[in-house]
Write a structure and sequence with these properties.
The complex is a heterotrimer of chains A (303), B (336) and C (237). Chain A is mostly helical. Chain A contains eleven helices and two strands. Chain A has one domain: ABC transporter involved in vitamin B12 uptake, BtuC. By secondary structure, chain B is mostly helical. In chain B, 78% of the residues lie in helices and 1% in strands. The longest helix of chain B is centred in the first third of the chain and has 27 residues. The two termini of chain B are 34 Å apart. Chain C has 237 residues and is α/β, with parallel strands linked by helices. Chain C has ten helices and ten strands. Chain C is globular and about 50 Å long. Chain C starts with a strand and ends with a helix. Chains A and B meet through α3, α4, α9 and α11 of A and α5, α11 and α13 of B.
């Protein structure tokens, strides 16, 4: 029972992090129509910045905010420096076919990931850096017995739920949120309505970058950070999006939790090496039998 | 009919010229560069596999390194366990990669861009854990080492017995030449035309009577066969392991393909040369500055990623497309 | 006043509109009619900024607007209800209408609220379906929604692209009459693109007949309606 509860809470806090990664991916996907493989590069970079600040003796929360800003700025930079100019190239022969118009930005995002990883390696010498948690990461003791969760687990789950709630309120209740949804769903009608879809798309990149940075900060206390340490997390986040449904924000978030529990239970009851095989199998099964994702409502995929 | 023969002959000529030129260059450089040229030839085959898949049919695979790994592991297992000659093992590992590619293609045919991209990337990233999972077979983290052997007797006239690097180059060159010839024919074949139709306008291709999912699966299998050969050769340099076929390999194949030009065979060659030799060039260029290790270690990765992104933003067609455009302009001026 | 001057547009390397000129007078309904493929929709998409023209000009109240982005064209007071009753199916009726006024929200919050209320008065059926997803509406209701989405920005010029497409005659009549009443009461300028020439010429003041991307006739609507030779040659009735 103790083992089960342990696995359950680890799964919950891990799932919360995956959910954040998935949220970041979906925000960019819905706006720009591409899976941003550079996302965890942004997160890695901002986690390094935060760890440097902490190492200099700054307060955790200052480092936290700084990481958020770095993630957001990198998001905006990617959109403005790479994705927008690429859109202007749509007349060139190679981008004439729809399949290439999809493929090329994805490759660009991988290139950006490479740039960020190399830069981080140059600046921080590829050191593995630790990063403290704002609260304790050892199990709480309740009446002499240790509880199956740590304060940090609770902190992560709590913060992630707050972020998810804030995001969904922002999208459903505010005008900017409406503009974002409209641009994602039908950018032509949105533009005809006077919405500046280009800036709105950039905003999507900004929010996504900030969200991804938080995910990066939450992973670091457990695993340390290195230039390529978050690659695997990104792939889990991607799988979460697909399993939950790329077009559905809540679906992707739930997908994140599903994968969090799956990986945690496999890690406890089976061998950790099976985790990726399991994720891969889940991914393939979902794509073959329910391509719109478990929670996707639309009849088909977007493209 | 005659036209077809003409093209085949011309392709044969191109391949023969390629063989002779690379061999001559290879014989006249030092052992280090010989082994670098061998790597470039192997990467060339790998990039061709991407240009066939992405350039001809528009499907994107970010995990071509994983298919190379399948070729590499098959080849290593066959040589180590069954003691097959590599001349048999390499073609057989081509078959096993093609089968894997076919299976992946069955899934891929149902996926569009981002889904396919993510799935193939996941495959490439998950590979090391699979190698660890079945440690007894695949040798886990360390991998499997292979003995490449020495030149076969009848070749000793061309390649001397004692130069391992030249022997490596020679073997890679044989397969690269065959791959080049086959790809040239593939690019000019009738099926390529229907693949391009598929890439450019899927509904129209369907109206033309092309079976979309079967065709996509076929292309995946063909492309994987090339990746398999590249993988087998890559492993024959001595080691097959997760570190050899890591995500970095998939990325450098993609970089080579885009830099050179994803739709062109010449582009694959240019891309492979750049990807393989860039670190050497940078090393030479930076040598006088005596930079700190942490900078020089990451400089090649930074520059190649930067080149990749810049190519995409400035000219997504790659270097080859610029060359063709220049050639066209020159010819135009000449006519005037 | 909207003035189209020698406008040419190519679309997928086909010349869709070649050198057309006409004027849409302020406060009047101008209709552009013509068969399928005459270049009508291309013309509207060029005016609203979705396509850049190859040559020629579009002048709106004295300033050149060709080549501006659609989001700025709307800000200049030109709103389009696009072809195919385009609304965003996944958003509610209310959200679709609000979307059309988002850009005015910061400066004129009260006026936006009033404008939304007016839309519900204009088309009471939309008020009943306020919180429904636009995807659940009938074709006629969607057209009403598309027009409301455009009108809520309080444009001076309304571009209507084939509002009658696929709708029952009774509903077409109702929608067209609503628009024409609005035009008379508020001085709204309307540019109505229609394949259904009869209905369009009935309410319009001025008619422009397009064929294969060129203006064949530009004259008062009544005169165009009466011209049997033009009708027979280009409209087929």
């Amino acid at each position: 029972m103790q083992t089960f509860l342990n696995a359950f809470f680890t799964g919950g806090s891990r799932g919360a992090i995956y959910a954040l990664v998935a949220l970041g991916l979906v925000l960019v996907w819905r706006g720009a129509g591409l899976i941003n493989f550079a996302q965890m590069g942004q997160a890695m970079f901002s986690a390094y910045v935060a760890s440097t600040l902490i190492a200099q003796g700054k307060n955790y929360w200052i480092a936290f905010i700084a990481a958020l800003v770095v993630g957001a700025v990198l998001g905006a930079a990617i959109d403005i420096l790479v994705i927008r100019p690429l859109k202007k190239k749509s007349g060139s022969a190679i981008l004439n076919s729809p399949s290439m118009r999809e493929a090329i930005p994805v490759i660009a995002s991988l290139g950006i990931l490479g740039i960020l990883q190399a830069l981080a390696g140059m600046i921080w010498a590829g050191d593995e850096r630790g990063f403290p948690a704002p609260v304790s990461t050892s199990a709480i003791s309740l009446g002499g017995k240790s509880a199956p969760f740590t304060p940090f687990d609770l902190f992560v789950i709590g913060t992630v739920f707050a972020i998810l709630l804030a995001t969904s309120l922002f999208l459903s209740k505010t005008s900017v949120g409406l503009a974002m949804r409209a641009s994602a769903l039908n950018s032509e009608v949105a533009r005809l309505s006077g919405i500046r879809t280009r800036s709105i798309r950039t905003l999507g990149w900004v929010i996504s970058g900030a969200v991804a940075s938080i995910a990066g900060l939450f992973i670091t206390p457990a695993t340390n950070i290195a230039p390529n340490s978050l690659d695997l997390i990104l792939i889990v986040g991607f799988a979460a999006c697909v399993i939950g449904g790329l077009d559905s924000l809540m679906g992707s978030v739930l997908g994140g939790f599903i994968l969090g529990f799956t990986t945690s239970f496999i890690g406890v009851y089976d061998v950790p090496e099976d985790i990726f095989i399991a994720i891969f199998a889940m991914l393939i099964l979902v794509m073959l039998f329910r391509p719109q994702g478990i929670f996707g409502s639309k009849a088909g995929r977007r493209v | 009919m005659f036209k077809k023969m003409d093209t085949a002959l011309r392709n044969l000529g191109v391949a023969a010229l390629f063989f002779v030129v690379v061999l001559l260059v290879g014989k006249n450089v030092g052992p280090y560069n010989q082994s670098q040229i061998a790597v470039a030839l192997i990467i060339f085959i790998g990039v061709l596999s991407i240009n066939i898949l992405t350039g001809l049919s528009g499907q994107l695979s970010l995990g071509q390194g994983a298919l190379m790994a399948i070729g590499g592991y098959s080849c290593a297992l066959m040589i180590n366990n069954w003691h097959l000659s590599m001349w048999i093992a390499i073609p057989l590992s081509l078959v096993s990669a093609a089968i894997a590619g076919y299976l992946l293609g069955l899934v891929a045919a149902r996926l569009s861009g981002p889904y396919l991209a993510g799935t193939t990337l996941l495959l490439a990233l998950a590979l090391p854990t699979i190698a660890n999972r079945f440690e007894t077979v695949f040798g886990g983290e360390t991998g499997l080492s292979i003995d490449f052997g020495t030149p076969t007797q009848w070749l000793s006239g061309i390649v001397s017995q004692d130069s391992f690097e030249l022997w490596q180059l020679f073997v890679a060159l044989i397969f690269a030449t065959v791959s080049l010839f086959l790809t040239c024919n593939l690019f000019t074949s009738r099926s390529a035309r229907s693949w391009r139709a598929l890439r450019d306008h899927e509904p129209a291709a369907e109206l033309m009577g092309i079976n979309i999912s079967r065709t996509k699966t076929q292309i995946f299998a063909i492309s994987s066969a090339f990746a398999g050969v590249a993988g087998a050769l890559y492993g024959l340099r001595g080691l097959v392991g997760p570190s050899v076929f890591g995500i970095a390999l998939s990325l450098s194949l993609l970089t080579g393909s885009i830099l050179g030009g994803v739709r062109s065979i010449l582009g694959a060659g240019i891309g492979a040369v750049i990807v393989v030799f860039l670190p050497d060039w940078i090393g030479k260029a930076m040598h006088p500055f005596a930079l700190a290790d942490q900078l020089t270690n990451y400089l090649p990765a930074l520059l190649s990623s930067l080149l990749l992104v810049l190519t995409i933003v400035i000219n997504p067609g790659g270097i080859a497309s610029s060359l063709y455009a220049l050639a066209r302009r020159a010819r135009g001026n000449f006519k005037k | 006043m909207l003035e189209i001057k020698e406008l040419s547009v190519s679309y997928d390397s086909v010349q869709a509109v070649s050198g057309i000129s006409f004027v849409a007078e302020t406060g009047k309904i101008t209709t552009v009619i013509g068969a399928n493929g005459a270049g009508k929709t291309t013309l509207l998409r060029t005016i609203s900024g979705l396509i850049a023209p190859k040559s020629g000009g579009i002048s709106w109240n004295g300033s050149e607007i060709q080549g501006l982005r659609p989001e700025n064209i709307v800000r200049a007071g030109i709103a389009q209800a696009p072809e195919g009753h385009a609304v965003i199916a996944e958003l509610t009726v209310e959200e679709n209408i609000r979307m059309g006024a988002l850009f005015r929200l910061r400066k004129n919050r009260d006026d936006v609220r009033a404008a939304i209320a007016e839309m519900y008065e204009l088309f009471p059926r939309l008020a009943e379906r306020k919180n429904q997803k636009a995807g659940t509406l009938s074709g006629g209701e969607r057209q009403m929604l598309a027009i409301s989405r455009a009108l809520v920005s309080r444009p001076q010029l309304l571009l209507l692209d084939e509002p009658s497409l696929g709708l029952a005659p009774l509903i077409v009549e109702q929608i067209i009459q609503t628009v024409s009443a609005l035009c008379r009461e508020t001085g709204l300028t309307v540019l109505l693109v229609e394949q259904n020439a009869n209905t369009a010429l009935e309410v319009a003041d001025h008619g422009v007949l397009l064929a294969l991307g060129k203006v064949v006739a530009s004259m008062p609507a009544a005169q165009l309606r009466a011209d049997e030779s033009l009708r027979a040659a280009y409209l087929g009735y």
